[in-house]
Amino acid sequence: MDDDGELLGIGAFARRVGLAPSALRFYDDCGLLRPDRVDDATGYRRYGSGQTDRAVRLRQLRAAGMPLVDVETVLDGPEEAARSVLRAHLERTRRAADEARAVVAGFLGETPGEPVGGSGVARAWVDGPELASAVRQVAPAAATGATAAEFPVLGRVLCELDGGEVRLVATDRYRLAVRGLRPAAVEGGPRRALIPAESARRLAEWAVRQMTVEVEFPDAASAPDGVRVLLRSGQERWEDTGWDVAGTVRAEAFPDYRLMLSGLAAVRQRLIVDRTGLREAVVSQGGGVPTGAVSLAFGAGAEGFGDGVLVVTGGAAGSVRLRAVPTGPGLRISFDPAVLVPALEAGVGPDVLLEIAAADQPVVVRSADQGSFTTLVMPGRDA
Q1: Would the pTM count as exceeding 0.85?
Q2: What is the 3-state secondary structure of the chain?
């Protein structure tokens, strides 16, 4: 336990050391940075302030491109072994930088026209597994089937570079999913491009294996067939024939998600509940509902149910009662399981937070420990 007794939640500790919460969970799984304490009941991780130096060193070594096995040696191995690993990595990075400079200089010597940096290309460098996680969370909200055929733009994931952040957005009119990524570095912007949902899923499979991904948005001059987005990791490049180019769906046609978010009514009720438990309850109740709706009732005065209880109804098998932490007046609200379940599955962590303005207004679904990912879901008809 931390000597001075100060324990920080994963979000606060992540901000202190400059790592994403998902990165902290990954390093916990790898054994490189274990939390000081994990609550047996909730699974919440708590970090001691004395772990700050180790976390910062871990972040710096990973930013320098060092493999995890070498990072472990530097942090925990004998001093001589650590120095040997650092020297070897320094030599590798020097060789790679020299080779890259030689190649780029050679091409620049052969290429007439404007100097480097004048093309208007925008770039951002993001963590590969973080990018893969973001795509997997957002892509399920893209439209499919008849809706995508009627509104092709809704069958795409928006990839946007704006305000120093890479943002992924998808919506099918009933759901809206937004995830922001903090790049290690940014050049240029703002830019946006559309990725077909199926291409986005293949992109996630590729990105999860990369340490760092360079996201490049060429301008019209350097990509004459239309502005798109390209991804590279070292010498490896991810390409797909499904990118939207000139003559097809353009990014300007994507719905104004900022307007949708800013237009949300004030929150009147909040509900924190076990994410997996709620998903299983909705699935079990939704399976036998002809109208395709399940109802959630909670809070004092909600059909006689007391505080601390969420009741899920809709199927013929009766109701499911879950422990919950509701705030605000009691409420009964209904959802189409086909809309709510994917939003729950895309979340991270053991809990989910529902922010409700009214039974007929969009509901914000958040992962309690990942504020950078937000989903909006529309309530359905009463069960």
Answers
A1: no
A2: CCCCCCEEEHHHHHHHHCCCHHHHHHHHHHCCCCCCEECCCCCCEEEEHHHHHHHHHHHHHHHCCCCHHHHHHHHHCCHHHHHHHHHHHHHHHHHHHHHHHHHHHHHHHHCCCCCCCCCCCEEEEEEHHHHHHHHHHHHHHCCCHHHHHHCHHHHEEEEEEECCEEEEEEECCCEEEEEEECCCEEECCCEEEEEEHHHHHHHHHHHCCCCEEEEEECCCCCCCCCCCCEEEECCEEECCCCCCCCCCCCHHHCCCHHHHHHCCCCCCEEEEEEHHHHHHHHHHHHCCCCCCCEEEEECCCECCECCCEEEEECCCCCCEEEEEEEECCCEEEEECHHHHHHHHHCCCCCEEEEEECCCCCCEEEEECCEEEEEEEECCCCCC
